[in-house]
Design a protein that fits this description.
By secondary structure, the protein is α+β, with helices and mostly antiparallel strands. Helices cover 56% and strands 11% of the residues. The chain has two domains: 47-194 and 473-700, no CATH class; 203-338 and 421-471, no CATH class. The protein has helices spanning 11-20, 38-115, 121-170, 200-241, 248-256, 275-291, 299-320, 342-346, 376-379, 389-394, 407-411, 415-419, 424-472, 498-501, 534-545, 556-571, 573-585, 595-610, 627-631, 641-651, 660-673, 707-723; strands spanning 178-185, 323-327, 330-334, 356-360, 366-368, 382-387, 398-399, 485-492, 496-497, 512-513, 516-526, 620-625, 681-688, 696-702. The radius of gyration is 52 Å and the shape is rod-shaped.
């Protein structure tokens, strides 16, 4: 290194040099007698390096000091993650209870439906027995599930504390030894309960006590309905079902030229009613009466035409008094029977009508004539009034020698058309007779239907109430320890000298970085990255996989429905609706009485009325939050002493206490240490099928690995380390203030 690096330039010096430089050689511009000394540069370099290494040392110290907060965050998240796992266990148990409830209720409803169909009554017994078993399974499981879940949530504070201590210890390094503990808020959860399935037991009791009576009455209703339907079918065929063959509609079209609305056609009996032939007959006889005229001028034809018109008018008047009143649960009708022979004519008002002219000859003999235009009136004396056929026979009158009118003459008007199938009256009489028999069958059917519908309706009402209870009394409103969040306190107990943390050759120091502590809070938030129900679905898949041993205990349809009911928990009513349709579809509910179809629709509408909705199966994950918010989550509730101390630590750390950390450490440790002994795998509940020797499906949860063995050690070390940090109030620093 040259002695002079930079030259000092002065104006006078350069001026002199220019004058004396006659040789033309100029001195270098940078040559000078002045400049910075080497000692100054060395000092500057040393200061710069000292500042750089000092800054690096400060950064290293601050980084190590701040790492305790990261570990506290991890400990709080680990503690709250146990609460998230507990919610998953609750969802699985809730799904099991709800699915068993719905399975049993649907099976009971299907059994009630099957009782209404005589052909399905053997199936009904199987379904009712299966429903009884499933409901008992549900009650047993619900009781054991609540007992197990309450026990687990009592362990939850310890599990969370032990897990957070384990996480804190696992983050220890060569320059940091972390110990800590966590406290769940609230410290005690709300007790979980599953009430009895209201309505289910009443429905099953009715099925057992009145099942045979319902089945017997359903058979009576089926027989009466079969007879009624047969009579209705025969009446339908006689009215219009035989088209284009002989029937009322065909005869009305051919004989009276009726068409359109006066003469309607029906292709199926389901769309037809007895009011159709009654209206058709009224229109027919009205038309025939108006259009009646003799086909020739002979006396016999003229007489027959008069008698036909008289019969048509009589029939039209009689049919005007006819009626059909048909309701869903009753039937009443009146089809006047028209006389088909002389004897029946004598029983009608035709026999008593005084409309026939009477003449008296010179010998006092009285003659009865068919109509006023009879040629015998002029030949048989004089007109003496009018009389009826009843008077004719009672008073011994003589028939007219020209028209030969007598009761037989009028009786034969409808005899032919009633006796042979090409007559309208023949088919009308069939309809009238079948209507009478149909009404008698309905009179037997309706009471039987009522005797079936009342108890079955009551059963289905109870099942509807039970469904409402099953979907409203759930565990999805659970409030376990840690529902508000978790507070974690972590300490780094390692004492590090500054030389060990960041050795600096320029200087050394005997100072050391002492223990440090941090407080963190965590709570639960919905995990948007996990689809709703995915976690529960995967667990339920394994849950059903464990049920293979029960295949011989429950019918295939029951197991299939149970699987569908489990899917309902996450997928909603559509999944359950498919299961209901599958079960009800396996029952041949078609019957003459329609009771099976009625009960099936009634049961399905009951399920619709309940408004079944899938459960909230959102996945939860722990997230860090300000510890003050966790401590203040429920300030007005009767909190535990540990919760009050945690809030005191956060808000009044520099209180009058000579050892504020010691206060909260003792309070927290006392809560969690009591639950350590005897905890391993926790059996939440068990679905028992049948007696004690029968198959079963357990629901168990294993504590995190190493929790039981390391729990006491972690908590003991954490408590001792935290208590060793007690300091005077003047030395407390609150960075969160």
């Amino acid at each position: 290194m040259s002695k002079r690096i930079f030259s000092k330039w002065t104006p006078n010096e350069n001026k002199n040099k220019s004058k004396t430089g006659s040789s033309g050689a100029c001195r270098p511009f940078f040559r000078s007698d002045g400049g910075f000394s080497t000692v100054g540069m060395v000092i500057a370099l040393l200061l710069t390096l000292s500042l750089i290494f000092s800054a690096a040392q400060v950064h290293r110290i601050q980084s190590i000091s701040s790492e305790v907060q990261n570990v506290a965050d991890a400990a709080a998240l680990a503690a709250e993650n146990q609460v998230a796992s507990f919610y998953v266990v609750i969802q699985v148990c809730d799904a099991a209870v709800l699915s068993l409830s719905l399975t049993g209720l649907i099976m009971a409803g299907a059994g009630a439906v099957a009782l209404c169909v005589p052909a399905c009554q053997p199936i009904a017994a199987t379904l009712i027995e299966a429903a009884d078993k499933v409901i008992r399974m549900r009650d047993t499981f619900a009781e054991s599930a609540t007992r197990g879940l309450n026990a687990l949530q009592a362990f939850l504070p310890f599990i969370a504390a032990a897990q957070s201590a384990s996480v804190a210890s696992a983050n220890s390094t060569s320059h940091a030894t972390y110990l800590g503990m966590a406290l769940l808020l609230p410290l005690e959860g709300k007790e979980l309960t599953y009430p009895s399935l209201t309505g289910a037991h009443e429905a099953l009791e009715t099925l057992h006590s009145k099942g045979e009576e319902i089945a017997s009455t359903a058979e009576e209703a089926e027989e009466a309905s079969r007879e009624a339907n047969e009579h209705k079918m025969r009446a339908f065929m006689a009215d219009c079902g035989n088209e284009p063959g002989y029937c009322m509609s065909e005869r009305a079209r051919s004989l009276a030229s009726m068409a359109g609305g006066e003469n309607p056609l029906f292709s199926q009996v389901d769309n037809w009613s007895f009011s159709v032939p009654l209206a058709r007959a009224r229109a027919y006889y009205g038309r025939r009466a108006l259009a009646e005229a003799p086909h020739s001028s002979s006396v016999d034809e003229q007489q027959n035409s008069v008698l036909r018109k008289q019969f048509y008018e009589y029939a039209s008047g009689e049919l005007a008094r006819g009626y059909v009143v048909e309701k869903e649960d009753s039937f009443e009708s009146y089809f006047p029977l028209l006389p088909k022979n002389t004897d029946e004519m004598r029983q009608s008002s035709l026999y008593q009508q005084a409309v026939y002219p009477v003449t008296v000859d010179e010998h006092g003999i009285r003659y009865l004539h068919a109509w006023d235009g009879c040629p015998g009136i002029a030949e048989c004396g004089h007109l003496a009034g009018y009389a009826s056929l009843q008077q004719f026979e009672a008073e011994g009158m003589s028939p007219c020698p020209f028209c030969r009118f007598s009761p037989v003459s009028l009786g034969e008007v409808a005899a032919a058309s009633t006796s042979i199938e090409n007559g309208f009256e023949h088919h009308y009489r069939i309809v009238a007779e079948e209507a009478r028999l149909y009404q008698k069958a309905r009179e037997r059917l309706e009471p039987a239907m009522k005797q079936v519908k009342e108890p079955v309706g009551s059963i289905l009402d109870n099942l509807e109430n039970a469904m409402k209870a099953a979907t409203t009394t759930r565990l999805d409103d659970a409030f376990p320890p840690g529902a508000y969040g978790a507070l974690a306190l972590v300490v780094n107990t390692k004492v590090n000298t500054l030389d060990n943390l960041a050795p600096v050759a320029f200087f050394s120091s005997d100072s050391s970085l002492g223990p440090s502590a941090a407080l963190s809070g965590a709570t639960l938030a919905q995990d948007q990255s996990t689809p709703s129900g995915e976690v529960v679905d995967s667990l339920l898949d394994g849950f059903m996989g464990d049920s293979s041993d029960v295949a011989a205990f429950l019918p295939h349809e029951v197991l299939k429905l149970w699987g569908t009911a489990l899917r309902f928990y996450t997928q909603g009513f559509n999944a359950l609706d498919e299961g209901m349709k599958s079960v009800l579809g396996s029952i041949p509910i078609a019957s003459q009485s329609g009771l099976g179809d009625w009960a099936s629709k009634r049961f399905h509408s009951a399920a619709d009325a309940v408004g079944l909705q899938s459960a909230d199966t959102a996945a939860w994950k722990p997230v860090t939050v300000n510890s003050w918010h966790v401590a203040q989550a429920d300030p007005h509730a009767p909190a535990s002493d540990a919760l009050l101390r945690a809030k005191h630590l956060v808000t009044h750390l520099s209180s009058n206490s000579s050892a504020p950390l010691s206060d909260i450490v003792d309070a927290s440790a006392a809560v969690v240490e009591e639950e350590i002994d005897g905890i391993g795998t926790v059996r939440i509940a068990e679905i028992s099928l049948g007696d004690e020797q029968g198959p079963s499906i357990p629901i168990e949860i294993a504590l995190p690995s190493g929790v039981k063995d390391a729990g006491k050690d972690f908590l003991g070390r954490a408590r001792d380390a935290l208590k060793s940090l007690t300091t005077s109030p003047s030395q407390v620093v609150k960075p969160w203030s």
